[in-house]
Amino acid sequence: GKTTTSGNGGDEIKIGAIFSASGGAAPLGKPEMETVKMLVKQWNEQGGIDGKKIKLIAYDDKSDQNEAVLSAKKLIEQDNVTAIIGGTISGNSLAMIPQIEKAGIPYISLAASKQIVNPSDGSSRHWTFKTAQGDNIVIQKLLGFLKEKRWLNVAWLNVANAYGTSGHEEFVHYAPEYGVKAVIEEEFEATVDDAKAMLTKVKKANPQAIIVWGTAQESAVVTKNIRQLGIAAPIVESHGIGTKSFIDLAGEAANDVWFPAGRILVADQLPDSDPQKETLLKYKQDFEKAYGYAPTTFGGHAWDAFHLLANAIKEGGTEKEKIRSALENTRKFIGISGVFHMSKDDHTGLDADSLVMVQIQDGKFVLAEQ
Amino acid sequence: MEAWSQFVQLLFSGLTVGSIYALVALGFVITYSVTGILNLAQGDFAMLGALFCVTLVNDGVPFVLAIGLSIVAVMAIGALFERLAIQPARRSPVAVLIIITIGASFVFRGIALLVWGTNPYALRPFTGHGALEAFGAVIQWQSVWAIILSLASFAALHLFFHRTYIGKAVAACVINPFAARLMGIDIRKMSLGAIAASAGLGALAGIVIAPISGASYDMGMMIGLKAFIAAVVGGLTNAPAAIAGAFLVGLLESFAEGYLSSGYKEAISFGLLLLVLFFMPNGLFAKMTGKRV
Amino acid sequence: MEHGQRMTDGRKRWLWLAGAVVWLGLPWLVFGNNYVLSTLVLIGLYALVGTGMTLLMGYAGQISLGQAAFYGMGAYTSAYLTAHAGWPAWLALVAGAALAALVALVVGIPVFRLREHYLALATLGFGVIMFTFFKEWKGITGGLNGFFGIPPIRIAGIPLQSDWQFYYLVSSFVLAGGWFARNVVRSRVGRALRAIHGSEVAASSLGVNITKYKLQIFILSAVYASVAGSLYAHYVTFINPDLFGIIPSIYFLIMVIIGGTASVWGGLVGAAVYVCLGEWLKAVVPLLLPNAGGEFEIVFFGLLLVIMLIYMPNGLTGVAPQGLRRCWKTSWRQSERATAVDSHKARSIGGEQG
Amino acid sequence: MSAMLLEVEQLSKSFGGIQAVQNVSFYVKKEDIVAVIGPNGAGKTTLFNMISGIVPPTSGFVRFQGAIVSGKQPHELAMLGMTRTFQNLQLFADMTVLENVMVGFHSRLKSGIVSAGFRLPRTVKEEKQAQEQAFFCLEQVGLAHLAWERAGTLPYGMQRLVEIARAAVSRPSLILLDEPMAGLNPQESKQLVDVLLMMREQGFSFLFVEHDMETVMAIADRIVVLDYGKKIAEGAPEEIARHPDVIKAYLGEEAV
Amino acid sequence: MLTLRNVHVHHGHLHVLKGIDLHVGQGEIVAIVGANGAGKSTLLGTMAGVYAPTEGEILFEQKPLPYGKAEKIVDQGICLVPERRQIFDSLSVRDNLLLGAYRRHRRDGQEVKRDYERVLELFPKLQTMLDRPGGLLSGGEQQMLAIARGLMARPKLLLLDEPSLGLAPLVVKEVMGMLTQLCDQFQTSMILVEQNVRAALQIADEAYVLERGQIVMHGKAAELLADERVAEAYLGAAGRR
Ligand SMILES: Nc1ncnc2c1ncn2[C@@H]1O[C@H](COP(=O)(O)OP(=O)(O)OP(=O)(O)O)[C@@H](O)[C@H]1O
Ligand SMILES: Nc1ncnc2c1ncn2[C@@H]1O[C@H](COP(=O)(O)OP(=O)(O)OP(=O)(O)O)[C@@H](O)[C@H]1O
Ligand SMILES: [Mg+2]
Ligand SMILES: [Mg+2]
């Protein structure tokens, strides 16, 4: 839906946004949209950017690539926005990028694929940035953890969609570096009701640990099934399960599951020395007050994107190239997903330290010792 | 022995999944055999049933009552859907009716999204989290419930269609609505009843599944699709065949996943289904159709 | 009657002229607005698929729930052959169409032994299987991560990259496709197909080879979809399997139903209405409900769809005003289709009952 | 004197346990009108369906213009010059009357999907010819004024005439008619009888099933009588009318 | 028993019946004859609640008929045996017959059983094929089934649309005889639409001639049978039938 927040002509800054607030990626896109709406309201109440009100023009691409492309065109051609945030999922971001690059508009994607900033076909990414840790970063964190625990023979299970396969690719790419080996690799459907058929094979392979790479709903089913089959190996999962609903869905079975996650999940458990703690707590508080539930890492990506952009506009004014170079020169920006250090070659600016390992204990997310 | 227990495990998995498809497939069959409509919103009844039940349970309504209430609520929605969307379009071509049900499915999904948001919800199992062990394989109690309920619904339906007078009248409605009217069969009432009943069955299916796989606003689509396939493989107007079809699809998927690759699971089951269709074009369990020149 | 015919012809010429002016002039009318143009391009691509499906549904009497598979075949063939094998785009487009035709032939032979809903299921199954291929055949399709960097299509060495260029390209295809379809429909072949729709036994006892014609139309519709897919790939330059799954197939079906199969232009009308409706809702819903999200659009879209189909089950081309339709139908007029025909009766005449 | 057109040899058909047709043999010569009569359920329609290729015979064969045709598809038979009408009308209800008849001309046209799609001159010419022929045929059965009506809205009797026109427009050498008079009132039947007789003059041959004995007696050159799937009699109308078995099984005592 | 006053019916824009007045008395057989497309089937359909009149009134047993509500009309005792048979083709012959009594099976189950036996006696041919799907019967067999199914409703007024269509001459005779018998035994009234005009007029009491949606002639059946105009128009020129 198109939403117009405040702003009556004249001195305003138009920011375009595209989220997958409905459709398949809605669990990701909805908190993103809500976060940005909340932030725009906050900033405008405090006078906007340099006295100029922010006008947010947000579209819902319904998790559909064509909708995303059309919405991007609309933002560029019709709404004449200064910059664009969004593209909840990688496919949609990737489909939008060519025209955004052509039009020359600063763009911050919220999706994870590294293709968004480092395309394998070498096409231009002058204007494109992103705020989500790529799967390469998450996998490295996870592999580091496995290495530390000396769980080197693992079972790899991923959900059969873009999220799952991209995780799998990174895993295959980095595992040797950490001395980790998959004794079995399997895929399961996002709509899985019963994964025991697949898990019997896993049980036979006798891994030291099982990695389940999926989002909350399907991972919960698999996790429950692992426990039901009485497989004793520890379970390590992806950052995609970092929501309350995973714990609800998996129930008892969720306990003891490990996974890498952004700090937002365990904000209050962080040591006071953590540079992000204050920012995290503030976001958490604000979001909970506005929407009545805890913020997600995805909302966090949107928070980062908005602030990065707002700061760049503060610095560079409404001129596009100036905003872009301000973005590229971001240093030590303390955000939700981590501390950002952008550069010409790194349009993400995050590394594995932006993540922590979390374990579920008694139905709670608990920060594992570093 | 190892191989044996894997086999049994796969069998259990297949039965679990199959029973879920079966419950929804029965809904398809009822609607189709009374109205001649393939109701692609059938899966969404499951979704609505599950989410209603979750909400009621969370609000402290006793479990059994919550189940009953959600089924009744979804039946009411089904009835409303029939009156507002199906009845006025009775005379449209089949394809149009199918698309109308798709449209209705959008509406249901959109409303669910509005009310319940995007998060998946959990529902507690009917009888404890325990599992049953046999031959070195495990099956959750909830799966046993699913299987029992699907078989019970089937038995009830079978009796209804083949042993009761009304059952025959119901069948007559789709075979020749014009003649059915002349026999004094109230097609509109039949169609209302059928869709409400299949909505109720759908809701029951959703409630049974929710403890196994969770409940979310978008769960209807995939369940609906698979159940649709199950129903067609069996033969659309034939309840026992649809049940058999559902278990067949469930087992096929489970064994394909266990013994072959899981990535191609869908393609394998669909592919085999195509073969079945090609060699038995009216479904596996087709009877004489009564068509000639 | 002779007189009336000539009058119609005269009026028709003016209509053609006006149409041509609008067609050629549109990019200037919406000057500089690539958004509008790309909406039109998208409509055009959908319309191309829809025209094929209109033929299939309206004339071969077959619902296809897997049309996006052919769309995808065109897109991936073009993408792979141009990006990795260095073929010229036009050749790749033809190759895609040939591949789709071949697949349609192979699939069609067994599929058309089926009837009614079983046939619908078979096409659905085919769609799912093709989707799995797109997804799993990573070496060629790039899997779920998608296929990047598809080179542009060229005419006389000039790469077509801007929206207005694509607008002309795609709309030419749509017009040519529509013209071809219209001719087919008004010929012996189209008549045979409609006859099959009415009564298969009767058609065959008059010399109509049912399987052959159904298969030909199926192949034709596959070619339409494949060509549209190729054009899409060159237009957006990034494709991924989700674009060619079951949901898009259902959307194509919706478009054709909205447009109606009473005329071969049903596909175009349906695509236009479908896309515009979506865009319109995007604009209107927030005005009505300022805090609503995308979910409202879904609800409204669903409601509109239902209402529209209840009141015009034969689609928009089925209820188009008589005058307009007379322009479309030159060879002879057709009695008002919209008169409420007791469907039961109609069925017992045409069907195989009894 | 005239050549054999159709020869049916020892044709049988059973459906599961039901012997619908048993060892039936007969023939039709050029410009013959042969009637098949018999009680309800005697196997007449089944016999027709076998001859026209809609159902395969269980045993026996059919020879058409000297060649064995059993096992051929209906559309192949139509191409060879054998068309039929149906006991339960099989009109294309959503098409106009003219279009219905034009479909009948299908077997005489050649243009395929490609030449039709590009609207090659050949196609245009063929279309014109088809339309003219169809119109002519409609005129002959007296329905030209209804050419533009949707076939499904016509009353039953006229639909029958359309079906006959549709079967005749391609000028096949043999037309099979399954109860052509059913639903026509006597006056209309008479009109149809005239049409059929006129068509015979033009070289058509007919094989038809009919319960209206008046018509049968009026136009049939020969009559084949079936009962319980078996042929019980064959001969000229006068013979049949007097045949005791036929009277007992079919006509009843005070026959025509 | 049944009275129509100035009944008009439209199909879409088509004005099919233009002011029909008609009366059927208790135990009477009324024949309606007329050319193809005159509106005979439409007339019967209107009485059976398939179509609703746009003007005029229909009284059944002094009460207005519930227009367009077929199931209510069946309850009141009117049953239509439609043209083209309209068999439930994938249901067995037995089920087809039983469905004929759908409206009353709960009220008087025993009687339905007796009727079932009785109807099968009338059509012994059907007895041999009770388990076959109705759609596989031959044309004439289906016609018998349709009539038998209509009788199962035990109507006070039976509407028959071309019942002799497709029946062998011997069977036509039997059916016509049976209808007279039925009429006498059970005081069932009947409206008979027939192309086989002679057969119809022979058993009917009253007769109406319908042309282009209007009654053009009406009288005692025997009188019409003797009428020259009728003979010329409907009995074939020779008037032999
Ligand atoms: N497909 C079928 N399956 C089973 N039985 C069939 C089938 N077709 C016909 N029969 C049976 O075979 C017998 C002959 O049927 P057919 O239709 O040939 O009779 P007919 O002589 O045309 O009768 P009528 O004069 O009533 O039309 C009938 O008893 C019929 O029920
Ligand atoms: N459902 C319908 N829709 C539109 N027109 C119809 C419909 N049914 C009948 N008609 C038209 O109404 C007129 C009367 O038809 P009807 O079937 O009542 O005639 P009929 O006297 O029974 O003819 P027949 O002797 O052929 O059975 C005809 O012109 C017919 O075309
Ligand atoms: Mg017959
Ligand atoms: Mg009639």
UniProtKB/TrEMBL annotation, chain B:
Its main location: membrane. Keywords: Amino-acid transport, Cell membrane, Membrane, Transmembrane, Transmembrane helix, Transport. PANTHER family: ABC TRANSPORTER PERMEASE PROTEIN, BRANCHED-CHAIN AMINO ACID TRANSPORT SYSTEM PERMEASE PROTEIN LIVH. One of its GO terms (biological process) is amino acid transport. It comes from Geobacillus subterraneus. This is Branched-chain amino acid ABC transporter permease. GO terms for cellular component: plasma membrane. Belongs to the binding-protein-dependent transport system permease family. LivHM subfamily. The keyword Repeat does not apply.
TrEMBL record, chain C:
Pfam families: BPD_transp_2. The keyword DNA-binding does not apply. It is a multi-pass membrane protein. It comes from the Bacteria. Its main location: membrane. InterPro entries: ABC_transp_permease (IPR001851), LivM-like (IPR043428). The chain crosses the membrane at residues 14-31, 37-56, 63-83, 89-111, 118-134, 166-185, 217-238, 250-277, 298-316. It is found in: Cell membrane. Signal peptide: none annotated. The keyword Transmembrane applies. Keywords: Cell membrane, Membrane, Transmembrane, Transmembrane helix. This is Branched-chain amino acid ABC transporter permease.
Automatic annotation (TrEMBL), chain D:
One of its GO terms (cellular component) is plasma membrane. Residues 6-253 form the ABC transporter domain. InterPro entries: AAA+_ATPase (IPR003593), ABC_AA/LPS_Transport (IPR051120), ABC_transporter-like_ATP-bd (IPR003439), BCA_ABC_TP_C (IPR032823), P-loop_NTPase (IPR027417). Keywords: ATP-binding, Nucleotide-binding, Transport. One of its GO terms (biological process) is L-valine import across plasma membrane. One of its GO terms (molecular function) is L-isoleucine transmembrane transporter activity. This is ABC transporter ATP-binding protein.
Automatic annotation (TrEMBL), chain E:
SMART domains: AAA. It comes from the Bacteria. InterPro entries: AAA+_ATPase, ABC_transporter-like_ATP-bd, ABC_transporter-like_CS, BCAA_Transport_ATP-bd_LivF, P-loop_NTPase. GO terms for molecular function: ATP binding; ATP hydrolysis activity; branched-chain amino acid transmembrane transporter activity. GO terms for biological process: L-amino acid transport. It holds the Pfam family ABC_tran. Keywords: Amino-acid transport, ATP-binding, Nucleotide-binding, Transport. Belongs to the ABC transporter superfamily. This is ABC transporter ATP-binding protein. The lineage of its organism: Bacteria, Bacillati, Bacillota, Bacilli, Bacillales.
